[in-house]
């Protein structure tokens, strides 16, 4: 039996319910594609874990060896490798999120983006699907690193893991949305190298992943407060290592709590989403 | 009812007018072709009609919907096969179609069945679980055609559907396109700069520098440039020439042992000639004007068949060597 060729079925989007259903299908399949591609690409999965591990082992051990005394004064009895751990988790989330978003540039280059842009779904659905896909993958990538926690003497429990997953997801969502906004305007992979050097690397270095964001020069404290990644690193460190090491980013003598960090990430993500949708709608 | 209705369409990019006050209509179920050299405005017209670009001026309706104000309805009603591949080559053929079914809101209970149908039509059902990266150019194009009809569009747009394919594959791809068109009575709007491809069309618009310079059936267009030439060789040229003059009112030109006749419709004339001529015929030859001749006459330039757009070729090569790096 063949299905009847019915060109008028489901045409046009008569009600908002029908449009909503179509858009939900679009969000789902765009999310699914990202997850599927991530899952299938084992090489990427493994190689993208290599970098954080390298940082953790080489940077952590190297700095502990040469700056041992100074670090002990700053960090108390927490080893630098342990201090670095939440930052490295955030790093994995940051880079995976950005790379997922930037895959839009590949899609543009390889033509697949046109298949998406000419589909009868809204730009908002496209951006949301992509953001959710990138966030899921990035959260997963961060979560894999939690396997290292017992080795580093950090104890985990189910509630803690859940809280961390939520934070990782929010961080990833904020960063993927930002990446999509950039990708909407990026015409070549060459330009992406610029973005990497002048935006993503500074965001990583200023996030508090490597050093506590305390007692910094005035200009640097200002910049670190503008870095969305910082609002992911600080609460993750608080959850993993305790409030002594991460008392919260100080804004006007108030130390931000974990929920406040989460809200800031969510707000940042929302703004980036709106801008990204607008950027996609503006281009022909 | 018209599937496509274009009225005074203009599309400019800054000072450049790519589509310059173009008007035409395409009827339901028609195979309609845009023929012209690269840069004539063919792809721009398609991009406007499929809502990828907004018109600068004028109006266009596709499947009854306005391309500027009812974009989603237009998108739901059309299928597209782009000039460049637009598949995700890391996914399988089946997954590519699944993606399409979702973004085009194909009802869940029909999805699997429709995917199977279109894959069988283009002969790729056996390769459904192969990753698209492993496909040849012709297979990719067939998969794109399958995808283009998956959501049951009323109008299928084909932008240079066989660009970069070898002649045998091109012929193959066309078989599929016409099979789909006949089976579902879809309207097809295509662009091409291959003359032989244009022959598949019911009607052709010849476009040059953003303007339609002629619009008619391929046969009528060819009649514009002149008549068909029928060359006959008979047992007795003298006798044959006399008879032809008396019976058909034509002035045969003697060319060695052959007679050269200029007739309006050569294909229809030959059977009559064979039936009515008293002299035994040894051979008949028909030369018909080609669309190339038509283009040459209308614009003073040849389309230069086979010459691909240098930019498209560069993109193609870029893809080939980047393929492994992805």
Short description:
Chain A has helices spanning 16-40, 42-75, 80-110, 112-117, 123-145, 158-185, 189-205, 218-226, 230-241, 258-282; strands spanning 250-251, 254-255. With 284 residues, chain A is mainly α.
Task: Describe the protein in words.
- The complex is a heterodimer of chains A (284) and B (326).
- Chain A has 284 residues and is mainly alpha-helical.
- Chain A is 74% helix and 1% strand.
- Chain A has helices at 16-40, 42-75, 80-110, 112-117, 123-145, 158-185, 189-205, 218-226, 230-241, 258-282; strands at 250-251, 254-255.
- A two-stranded antiparallel sheet of chain A has the order 1-2.
- In chain A, helix 3 runs antiparallel to helix 9 and helix 9 (230-241) packs antiparallel against helix 10.
- Chain A is elongated.
- With 326 residues, chain B is an alpha/beta fold.
- In chain B, 40% of the residues lie in helices and 27% in strands.
- Chain B has a 6-stranded mixed β-sheet, with helices on both faces. In chain B, strands 2-1-4-5 form a 4-stranded antiparallel β-sheet, with helices on one face. A 4-stranded antiparallel β-sheet of chain B has the order 12-13-11-14.
- In chain B, 41% of the residues are buried.
- Mean pLDDT of chain B is 85; it is low at 319-326.
- Classes of the chains: A mainly alpha (284), B alpha/beta (326).
- Chain A binds chain B through residues 2-3, 5-13, 18-19, 21-22, 25-26, 28-30, 33, 36-37, 40-41, 106-107, 110-122, 284, and chain B through 50-54, 63, 65, 70, 72-73, 75-77, 80, 82, 84-91, 95, 98-100, 102-105, 107, 110, 113-114, 117, 147, 152-154, 183-184, 186, 319, 326.
């Amino acid at each position: 039996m063949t299905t009847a060729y019915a060109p008028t079925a489901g045409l046009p989007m008569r009600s908002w319910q029908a449009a909503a259903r179509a858009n939900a299908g679009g969000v789902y399949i765009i999310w699914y594609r990202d997850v599927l591609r991530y899952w299938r690409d084992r090489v990427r999965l493994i190689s993208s874990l290599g970098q954080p591990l390298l940082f953790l082992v080489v940077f952590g051990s190297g700095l502990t060896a040469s700056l041992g005394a100074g670090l002990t004064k700053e960090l108390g009895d927490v080893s630098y490798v342990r201090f670095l751990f939440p930052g490295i988790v955030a790093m994995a989330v940051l880079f995976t999120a950005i790379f997922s978003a930037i895959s839009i540039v590949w899609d543009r280059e390889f033509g697949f983006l046109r298949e998406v842009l000419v589909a009868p779904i809204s730009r908002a659905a496209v951006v949301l699907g992509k953001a959710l896909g990138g966030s899921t993958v990035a959260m997963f990538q961060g979560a894999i690193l939690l396997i290292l926690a017992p080795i580093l003497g950090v104890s985990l429990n189910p509630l803690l893991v859940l809280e961390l997953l939520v934070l990782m997801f929010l961080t990833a969502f904020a960063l993927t949305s930002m990446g999509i906004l950039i990708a909407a305007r990026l015409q070549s992979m060459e330009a992406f190298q610029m973005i990497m050097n002048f935006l993503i690397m500074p965001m990583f270095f200023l996030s508090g992943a490597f050093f506590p964001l305390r007692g910094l020069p005035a200009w640097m404290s200002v910049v670190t407060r503008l870095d969305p990644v910082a609002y992911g690193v600080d609460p993750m460190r608080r959850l993993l290592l305790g409030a002594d090491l991460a008392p919260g980013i100080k804004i006007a003598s108030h130390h931000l709590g974990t929920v406040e960090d989460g809200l800031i990430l969510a707000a940042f993500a929302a703004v980036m989403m709106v801008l990204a949708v607008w950027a996609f709608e503006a281009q022909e | 009812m018209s599937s496509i209705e274009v009225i005074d369409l203009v599309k400019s990019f800054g000072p450049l007018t790519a589509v310059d006050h173009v008007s035409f209509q395409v009827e339901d179920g028609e195979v309609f072709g845009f023929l012209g050299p690269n840069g004539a405005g063919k792809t721009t017209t398609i991009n406007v009609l499929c809502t990828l670009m907004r018109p600068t001026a004028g109006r266009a309706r596709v499947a009854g919907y306005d391309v500027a104000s009812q974009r989603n309805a237009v998108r739901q009603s059309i299928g597209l096969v782009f000039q460049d591949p637009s598949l995700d080559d890391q996914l399988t053929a089946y997954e590519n179609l699944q993606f399409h079914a979702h973004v085009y809101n194909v009802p869940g209970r029909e999805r699997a069945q429709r995917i199977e149908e279109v894959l069988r039509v283009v002969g790729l059902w056996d390769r459904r679980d192969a990753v698209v990266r492993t496909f040849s150019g012709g297979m990719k194009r067939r998969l794109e055609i399958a995808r283009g009809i998956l959501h049951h569009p009323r109008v299928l747009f084909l932008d240079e559907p066989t660009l970069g394919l070898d002649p045998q594959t091109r012929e193959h791809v066309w078989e599929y396109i016409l099979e789909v068109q006949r089976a579902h009575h879809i309207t097809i709007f295509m662009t091409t700069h291959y003359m032989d491809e244009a022959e598949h069309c019911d009607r052709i618009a010849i476009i040059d520098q953003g303007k339609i310079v002629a619009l008619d059936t391929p046969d009528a267009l060819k009649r514009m440039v002149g008549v068909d030439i029928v060359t006959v060789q008979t047992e007795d040229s003298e006798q044959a020439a006399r008879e032809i003059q008396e019976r058909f009112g034509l002035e045969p030109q003697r060319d060695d042992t052959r007679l050269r006749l200029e007739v309006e419709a050569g294909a229809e004339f030959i059977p009559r000639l064979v039936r009515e001529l008293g002299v035994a015929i040894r051979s008949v030859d028909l030369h018909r004007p080609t669309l190339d001749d038509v283009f040459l006459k209308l614009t003073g330039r040849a389309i230069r068949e086979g010459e691909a757009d240098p930019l498209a070729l560069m993109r193609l090569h870029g893809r080939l060597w980047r393929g492994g790096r992805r």
